[in-house]
Specification:
Ubiquitin-like (UB roll); Alpha-Beta Plaits; 20 strands; binds iron/sulfur cluster; alpha/beta; binds FE2/S2 (inorganic) cluster; 3 domains; five-stranded mixed sheet
Length: about 575
């Protein structure tokens, strides 16, 4: 092996120019050198599948798919030849020959990788004949599958595997090949945890978030309703991408203004709900730790519960961990409860006239909002959930360009979240935020050592640390995505590791990489969104939930104290073991 290859850097020739690269696969070396190579199946987050055959290039005189061809010293590559152009057109036409081509009416029209590439490569298909007809699966409250639009790229299989569920795979053969759950079951009859990661990577409209815009428009058009939008922490750092802003651009005030223009009567910040989640979860952690010291039997480590896809994952695959899950509701559910109780009373608006719409990075929150356990006064606390993508569509439908919108504030009654509430959108953020307050609750005084817990930040799969919290040594761990959660839980269950507190977020990067975030999404983009959230935190005048004035006010006027009877009744929930389907049933 030449020295360069041993060091990981090789020289190749691209269209007559020398290029040095350390990339493993040729496609990424070509992109690094500035070439735009068509691709529909490969994605930087996953190992290559080489299914679409669009990324072909000439390597030493042979036509090869660049996404799975490993770079070798001295390779001579041509990216555009007559043969390459014809091969790409031929492959694209074969894909289109089995596609409905109803782009004008398609949910992803103008936001579809397949459509964009087809326009560049070919205007029509020479191949006609039978088309595969499978139809739609609209059984899930989180995602919709339209397998007639599937181009069999394989990305959703990898995404679902990374979500720890491994539900989707190729079934049947040849012309009838399709991506399906086991035995062709409807998604609602499977172990799907509603994370929406499959929809985030689908290059066509074969898997999309469930479209709940019609429900939201009917609330807005109902004159009897006072419709409140609440905005999740990570959304402010990502929605700008839908309007051409760079990933990580902070658009909090512009988003609030746009939502008012769309027709919402008030716009609130879910990060304040996160402040209450932090207060309740920290109190719960402190209580469990004290009870253990008193010799009581107590379920530790405590696991976070603000990610509904992780909660579903635990209910489905690790029901023995249900006692270990924090019973605290997720931030948007808590915010909805406060809006329909405290806010309703203060503003003199009957709670049954209030509709709460959550603007989330998440498809799992759509399913969570329908849980019977989360109803208050007999109805769902959250009336509808929109992903970032649906929200951006509504803003565009209203003829507004978020880029040029003037900034507005959130509603004045429940606003001004702490920095801790805002970092909920990042992997490790929930852990850091809760420990800031647990330290205060255990020691009775804020402690600077708990302000920035750098060991639990970042995109590593599993992060472990030991902190002195209120004078007690606590071992904590963060699993970044469900695939890592599986590894961590197996280590805990085998006795190899022991922790006091564990954060699990189903999506890689936490909510910043959520299934309802703008497309495209990859590690780099998620990293920029996360950076923005930590910037908001470091600039925040109040960085700990227990120091937040609105939090103190609502506890003193309404909820009494963290863990009080009222707080338990309104801000806590329970979980149930689930088993939808088993091969032995
Ligand atoms: S929503 Fe998540 S769990 Fe369900 S099929 Fe898609 S990736 Fe798999
Ligand atoms: S459903 Fe989408 S992501 Fe999955 S194989 Fe089909 S086109 Fe690819
Ligand atoms: S990590 Fe965030 S976006 Fe992903 S499923 Fe959980 S709550 Fe939703
Ligand atoms: S991107 Fe290489 S085969 Fe699809």
């Amino acid at each position: 092996m030449p020295d360069e290859e041993k060091s990981g850097i090789v020289q190749i020739e691209i269209n007559g120019r020398k290029h040095e690269t350390a990339q493993k696969y040729l496609l990424y070396a070509l992109e690094e050198a500035g070439y735009v190579i068509p691709k529909l199946c490969s994605h930087p987050d996953f190992e290559p599948f080489a299914n679409c055959r669009l990324c072909v290039v000439d390597v030493n005189g042979e036509i090869k798919t660049s996404c799975n061809t490993e770079v070798r010293q001295g390779m001579v590559v041509k990216t555009e030849t007559e043969n390459i152009t014809e091969a790409r057109r031929h492959n694209m036409e074969l894909i289109l020959s089995n596609h409905p081509l109803d782009c004008d009416y398609c949910y992803r029209n103008m936001r579809c990788e397949l459509q964009a590439l087809a326009e560049k490569i070919t205007k029509a298909t020479r191949y006609a004949g039978a088309e595969r007809k499978i139809g739609k699966d609209e059984s899930s409250s989180a995602i919709t599958r339209d397998m007639d639009k599937c181009i069999l790229c394989g990305r959703c299989i990898a995404a679902c595997e990374r979500a720890g569920v491994c539900l989707l795979d190729y079934t049947k053969r040849g012309f009838n090949t399709a991506i399906m759950p086991p035995l062709g079951l409807k998604i609602s009859d499977t172990s799907c945890i509603s994370c929406g990661q499959c929809s985030l990577f689908c290059p066509a409209a074969a898997i999309t978030e469930r479209d709940d815009r019609a429900d939201v428009y009917s609330f807005i058009n109902d004159k009897e309703k006072f419709v409140i939008a609440q905005v999740a922490p990570s959304v402010r750092a990502s929605i700008g991408e839908e309007f051409g802003l760079a990933p990580g651009s902070i658009a909090t005030g512009r988003l609030a203004a746009c939502l008012k223009e769309v027709g919402f009567d008030a716009v609130c910040d879910t990060s304040v709900g996160a402040d209450f989640t932090i207060m309740e979860e920290a109190a719960e952690l402190v209580r469990r730790i004290k009870e253990r010291e008193e010799g009581k039997e107590v379920a530790l480590p405590m696991f976070t519960s603000c990610c509904p896809a992780w909660v579903s994952f635990a209910e489905e695959f690790y029901p023995e961990l249900i006692p270990n899950l924090s019973t605290t509701k997720s931030p948007h559910e808590i915010m909805a409860v406060l809006l329909k109780t405290y806010y309703s009373e203060k503003k003199g608006i009957p709670s049954d006239s209030i509709a709460v719409i959550s603007i989330m990075p998440c498809t799992a929150k759509k399913a969570e909002a329908k849980r019977v356990e989360l109803k208050i006064m007999g109805t769902p606390a959250v009336d509808a959930v929109l992903t970032v993508r649906e929200t951006a569509r509504m803003i565009r439908e209203a003829g507004i360009d978020l880029k040029r919108a003037k900034e507005e504030n959130f509603d004045d009654l429940i606003r001004d979240a702490s920095g801790a509430g805002q970092i909920f959108g990042a992997t490790g953020g929930v852990m850091e935020a809760v420990l800031r307050t647990a330290d205060f609750m255990l020691s009775g005084a804020g402690s600077s050592c708990c302000l920035e817990l750098r060991e639990v930040r970042g995109m590593s799969g599993i992060k472990e640390a030991e902190y002195s919290i209120g004078g007690k040594k606590l071992r904590v761990a963060v699993a970044n995505g469900n695939a890592n959660a599986k590894i961590l839980i197996d280590r805990i269950k085998s006795g190899e590791e022991s922790f006091d507190f564990v954060e699990i977020m189903a999506c890689p990067g936490g909510c910043s990489g959520g299934g309802g975030q703008p497309i495209p999404s990859n590690r780099k983009i998620i990293g920029e969104r996360i950076k923005a959230l930590y910037l908001i935190d470091s600039d925040a005048p109040v960085r700990m939930s227990h120091e937040n004035l609105i939090v103190k006010q609502i506890y003193s006027e309404f909820l009494e104290s963290p863990g009080s009877g009222t707080a338990e009744k309104l801000l806590h929930t329970y979980y149930v073991k689930k088993k939808k389907f088993s091969i032995t049933d």
